[in-house]
Specification:
Blueprint lengths: L5 H11 L5 E6 L2 E5 H11 L4 E2 L9 E6 L3 H10 L4 E6 L12 E7 L15 E8 L2 E8 L4 E7 L2 H11 L3 E5 L9 H5 L6 E4 L6 H12 L13 H18 L10 E2 L10 H7 L14 H5 L5 H12 L5 H10 L1
Parallel strand pairs: 1-5, 7-10, 9-12, 10-11
Antiparallel strand pairs: 1-2, 2-4, 3-4, 5-6, 7-8, 8-9
Helix pairs in contact: 6-7
Length: about 325
């Protein structure tokens, strides 16, 4: 193999820390991909595959696209189920001594990608914590700041709720892959984009500390999480995943809401699909569904709220009347 240049040494060092991601490496006016990442991206994005050192015995595969077009290419990669690490120049090349310093500024996955072209739809990231047959769920929409949690006495109830939510990504503890007792549960989630986190990120004390620090409270009881360990663990793991991927301020996550399905007339995934509440049965499109007829909202946030109301009909008459008076 040819001697590695300082630039490729920097690339390989950063890539080694993000092996599960396609690394977009900022180089001048372009984002470049190298080696196996280049082979994948050129195929998925249908862009030209070239090489860094064409005359060498073992040329380095590479492909790329202009910096100003990065949003569109990231969207295509994410929709195909790939995770992307955005590695940007963090110093002025004119002032750099030697190789320009670069850092990964954002990790983009299906559950945390902010799609500006589909602002009527929620993009949910969901995490699952399991312990002794009980299951906790936490779900967040990063674009709106919606952050809610619940728990169940058995995993099958949790699976039904996951189907109602329709998450873009599901975060699971890594140990679930080697647990025979949870094999059926895991296999029923294969329709979703699955990410496995370290079991330590689901640890209860760590979750309580992280959430209390973020929301600036001494106890999570005010959020309804007193004696709700599975829900707390799921919420903590989800928050930590967001902090690691976004590498920035999460202050727009201002509250955490515990909800009980007993508050709603629950409709399973099959029922929702056949009633065509938010998607048509055959084409799977929003157009032609019930929400497309009812939706006269003026903002994207209003449209997402209407979708939530349709998916989770209230049971309490007073709350129903209160909602009607708002319309």
């Amino acid at each position: 193999m040819n001697k590695t240049t300082p630039m490729l040494e920097q690339y390989l060092e950063i890539k080694a820390r993000h092996q599960d991601y396609l690394l977009l490496y900022h180089l001048g006016d372009f984002f470049e991909l190298f080696f196996e990442d280049a082979l994948i991206a050129s195929r998925v994005l249908e862009i030209t595959l070239t090489s860094r050192n064409k005359g060498a015995v073992d040329p380095v595969p590479m492909c790329g696209f202009p910096v100003q077009a990065v949003s569109g290419y990231i969207a295509r990669l994410v929709e195909k189920g790939y995770k992307v690490a955005l590695c940007e120049q963090v110093e002025d090349p004119a002032l750099a001594k030697g190789i320009v310093r670069r850092e990964v500024t954002r990790l983009i996955t299906p559950g945390v990608y902010l799609d500006e072209t589909s602002n009527q739809e929620n993009r949910y990231l969901l995490s699952v914590a399991l312990q002794g047959g009980k299951t906790g769920l936490a779900v967040v929409d990063l674009s709106t700041g919606e952050f809610r949690v619940t728990d169940f006495e058995n995993p099958n109830q949790a699976l039904e709720e996951i189907g109602r939510i329709g998450p873009s990504e599901v975060l699971l503890p890594r140990s679930i892959r080697n647990n025979p007792a949870l094999r059926d549960f895991r296999e029923k989630l294969t329709a979703y984009f699955l990410t496995y986190g370290q079991d330590s990120t689901f640890e209860l004390n760590r979750a309580e500390s992280l959430l209390a620090e973020h929301f600036r409270v001494h106890s999570l009881a005010g959020f309804g999480l007193a004696e709700r360990p599975e829900a707390t663990r799921a919420a903590g793991a989800l928050f930590l995943y967001l902090r690691e991927t976004q590498k920035g301020d999460l202050s727009h996550l201002r509250s955490l809401h515990f909800y009980r399905l007993s508050e709603f007339l629950t409709l399973n995934e099959s029922t929702q699909r056949h009633l065509e509440l938010t998607r048509t049965l055959y084409r799977g499109t929003r157009q032609g569904s019930l929400i497309s007829i009812l939706d006269q909202t003026l903002t994207a946030m209003g449209s997402r709220k209407l979708r939530q109301w349709i998916t989770y009909p209230l049971r309490d008459l007073d709350r129903i009347q209160e909602r009607l008076e708002r319309v």
